[in-house]
């Protein structure tokens, strides 16, 4: 069994969803999809990660961002953190992209 960290020690994975990835009317669904996706992802590495899924209305903001204690981490530092829990960041990002694509399908099929 994995030890669960207190929230303040967990790495926050912030993923911003482009409304367009939900189709031509994506802007109508993006807020609801973000709530749906967070519920589905929250237990993914829940012992050391926490999740925020938000719409990406501001394209100057990164799609994927890592934070700890409200401070933004570089990808390298996030990789070191994840590595300490046996998580490869490249694999994590690939699986996240696949999961989100599957969640878009599941969202519209419900």
What's the layout of helices and strands?
Layout: E1 11-17, H1 26-41, E2 49-55, E3 64-68, E4 71-73, H2 75-83, H3 89-109
Parallel strand pairs: 1-2
Antiparallel strand pairs: 1-3, 3-4
Helix pairs in contact: 1-3
Integer count of domains: 1
Using DSSP, what is the number of strands? Answer: 4
Q: What portion of the residues fall into strands of 2 or more residues?
A: 15-25%
Describe the main β-sheet briefly.
4 strands, mixed
Structural class estimated from helices and strands: alpha+beta
Number of helices: 3
Question: Helix-strand pattern, N to C?
Answer: EHEEEHH
Computed Rg: 14 Å
Q: Runs with pLDDT <50, length 5+?
A: none
What is the helix content?
A: 40-55%
Walk across the major sheet and give the strand order: 2-1-3-4
Task: Using brief descriptors, characterize the structure shown.
alpha+beta; four-stranded mixed beta sheet; 3 helices; 4 strands; globular
Describe this structure in words.
By secondary structure, the chain is an alpha+beta fold. The chain contains 3 helices and 4 strands; from the N terminus they run βαβββαα. It has one domain (7-109). The longest helix is centred in the last third of the chain and has 21 residues, at 89-109. It is globular, with a radius of gyration of 14 Å.
